[in-house]
Sequence to fold (335 residues):
Amino acid sequence: MENLDKFIEGMPKAELHVHVEGTLEPELKFKLAKRNNLDLPYASVEEMRAAYNFDDLPSFLKMYYEGMGVLLVEQDFYDLTYAYLEKARSQNVVYAEIFFDPQAHTTRGISYDTVISGIHRAQMEAQEKLGIKTQLIMCFLRDMTPDSAMEALEQSLPYKDWIIGVGLDSDERNNPPIKFAQVFERARAENYLLTMHCDVDQQNSTTHIWQTLNDIGVDRIDHGVNALEDAALCDEIKNRKLALTVCPISNGYVTDSMKTTEIKAMLEKDIRVTVNSDDPAYFPGYMNENLIATQREAELTRAQVIQLTINAFEGSWLPTADKTAFLQKLDTYVA
Fold:
């Protein structure tokens, strides 16, 4: 099999599924804790990494939300975001759509303005200094109430120019998409684009994916691997040209495999599947590592690797002219 590692590393890429809070590396966590006079329950970076021993979604989420406790002031959110953007750009990510979880901070007493202002300042500075373009997606926490989600939506409205869309993440168990139908209807009325997590191997996975299509009317699906269990569902996703943002390395931690065989199967069905990093500080691997792992395990061809990247640019929420420009950049690289 052709070794495509160097080719993947040099390719201009788009990332459509990364949680900015999930890019909080242990080294930065210690730095922010010291700056904010906080004690961490770990003596070292190594001890903290050793504690990242997840075997399902809830065990990961517990550590994930605990880790956010070091994020207190605008500069913390700036430092978090800029560190991710530097790392992404070093891997030739030229465009990223970044999730953030405002409720995880406002429920700790951090103002919405503090969170988004720090993130936005880093986005603008990284575009100018690093040449990486980004857009921001606000996620609602599905294990909180629809009223809480609606409050977060209303808090976002003064910042609409900074946010391209809304999503739904956190623990899916007993929290189906339909629970948030009114919130997403309001978000659509505010001209936000819509996506939702349909996490891998959850209870009622295909039912939840159908709900995102028929009851919510999403513009994209995050994860969504279990769609392969229903041929009609695959056909519907393909007909709507919806992108699926799959995260193989994180899959390998919270399920029984990275689901790379499923990624290959979706490519072969001409579904607009993409590969992304999810929470790369916790599931070790940014874009290059995820693409390389997928290519190796599924034995993808060079053409299939290129198609994953085309899918990401085409499935992005960029204006058509920007998509075209990035795809031309990819064509030039491939040639």
